[in-house]
Structure formats: structure tokens, C-alpha cells
From TrEMBL:
Domain BTB stretches: 65-126
Protein name: BTB domain-containing protein
Organism field: Megalurothrips usitatus (bean blossom thrips)
Length: 240
């Protein structure tokens, strides 16, 4: 390599970019060289791909972790590079000298949902058996840290629940702004279509106690729908 005239061959050594595709983390390392003080070039030095489960194992072993979160009086350790690969918010948070701070980062989530959040960032997987409220907690974390793929998973789960959990989703949609309108609409339609069965559920009794106006509106909508349906049937004229 011709080196004559190079003022600072590794002026910006250590510059790195990283990418994640859900199963692999790829690190693209490089350096910047200034020629004769005028021209800078960026050269890729190496590309390294590492299976994501390897990072999950390191976290489980609390090995080489460089960031700590305090949630619900519990501490969670992780690797900044993994979090930054999955979240633009983490990437901004860890960019610069502040990233080296030793103080734990505090989050208002529940410990259970934050653990699930970290598991997703490391593995791309969400457990099948997750209660509605924890799923909404997870949705809030995905929204807070800008993890779109996880938001999509959470919304899809909330859109496809059984009748009992539809009432729980309805309550969450009335109390948690992060729950999108499409989830509220589907839960409402499910409940109105099965109102007679729903009114005997303890989940409905809890909802009606906390949100009496919303419960009355739903019952009134169901009554009006049934009345209109009966009137429509009564007005049918059968011709010979």
C-alpha cells in the first residue's frame, strides 16, 4: 500500500457500524485515513457475523455485560451493542461519552415485561403464553424504544384473543394509550357480538365497575342492535 503523504493513517480508528437481521449480528469495522491532510477515505477492515443466541448465552451468564437497568428493584444486565443493533433509541442513548456511565438506567416497566423485552432483543422471540396485561406492557416497551417488529407482534397477539381476554383487552385499550384503535375496534366488536355471554364473566364485572360509562354504552349498543335486527325481521313481507 502506498503510504507517502499519509498524515494520520488511523485518524478515526475503531469506527464501526452494526446491523441485525433477527438471527445474526453483523459488525462492519473500518478506519479513516487522511491523505496529505486533504482527502479522507473510509476502508472496511473486517466483517464479523455472530449468531444471536451466542449473545443471549453471554447475557444469561452475565458475561461481558456493559449496561445495567434497574426495574422494579431488580437489576438487569445487557450488552450495549446488542441493544443498539435492535433499537434506534438505545443507539442514541449509548452514543458518546455518556454511554460509559456506571449508574444503572431506570425504567418504569414491570420486571417480567422488561425481561421478556430483553429476551426478544437477543433472540427475536416472544413466549406463546403471555397474559394480556404483560403483552400491553411489552407493547409499551417496544413503543418507547422504537422496536417496530416487536410492536407488530404485540398488536397481532392482542387482535387474536379469546372472549374472556377480549374484555381484558378492552379495559387495557381504555386505560393504556399505547393500545392502537384497531385493537379497541376488534375487542369491541367481539364483545358486542357475544354480549349475553360476556355479561356473566367476572372480567366484565370488573370492567363495568372501573368504566361504568363505557360498559353502559356497550350494553346500549348491543340492545339497539338486537332491537333493530328484530324490527328488520318483523318488516319482512313474504310474497306468494
Amino acid at each position: 500500500m502506498q503510504t507517502e503523504g499519509i498524515r494520520a493513517p488511523l485518524e478515526d480508528a475503531g469506527t464501526a457500524r452494526l446491523h441485525a437481521d433477527g438471527t445474526l449480528l453483523a459488525f462492519v469495522c473500518g478506519y479513516t485515513a487522511a491523505f496529505r491532510g486533504r482527502v479522507s477515505v473510509h476502508a472496511h477492515a473486517a466483517v464479523l457475523t455472530v449468531p444471536a443466541p451466542h449473545f443471549a448465552t453471554l447475557r444469561d451468564q452475565r458475561s461481558l455485560c456493559d449496561v445495567t437497568f434497574r426495574v422494579d428493584d431488580r437489576e438487569f444486565t445487557a450488552h450495549r451493542v446488542v441493544l443498539a443493533a435492535a433499537s434506534s433509541v438505545f443507539r442514541s442513548m449509548f452514543d458518546g461519552s455518556a454511554a460509559a456511565a456506571d449508574a444503572p438506567i431506570r425504567d418504569t416497566a414491570t420486571a417480567a415485561s422488561f425481561e421478556m423485552f430483553l429476551v426478544y432483543l437477543y433472540t427475536g422471540a416472544v413466549a406463546d403464553c403471555v397474559c394480556v396485561n404483560t403483552m400491553v406492557d411489552l407493547l409499551e416497551l417496544a413503543d418507547r424504544y422504537d422496536v417496530d417488529a416487536l410492536k407488530h407482534i404485540c398488536v397481532e397477539r392482542l387482535l387474536h384473543v379469546d372472549l374472556k381476554n377480549a374484555v381484558v383487552v378492552l379495559r387495557a385499550a381504555n386505560e393504556r394509550p399505547v393500545v392502537p384503535e384497531e385493537v379497541l375496534v376488534v375487542a369491541t366488536q367481539t364483545i358486542i357480538a357475544n354480549m349475553q355471554a360476556v355479561m356473566g364473566m367476572p372480567e366484565w364485572a370488573d370492567f363495568a365497575t372501573v368504566h361504568p360509562v363505557a360498559a353502559r354504552c356497550l350494553k346500549a349498543t348491543w340492545t339497539a342492535f338486537n332491537l333493530q335486527h328484530r324490527n328488520t325481521n318483523n318488516n319482512i313481507i313474504i310474497l306468494d
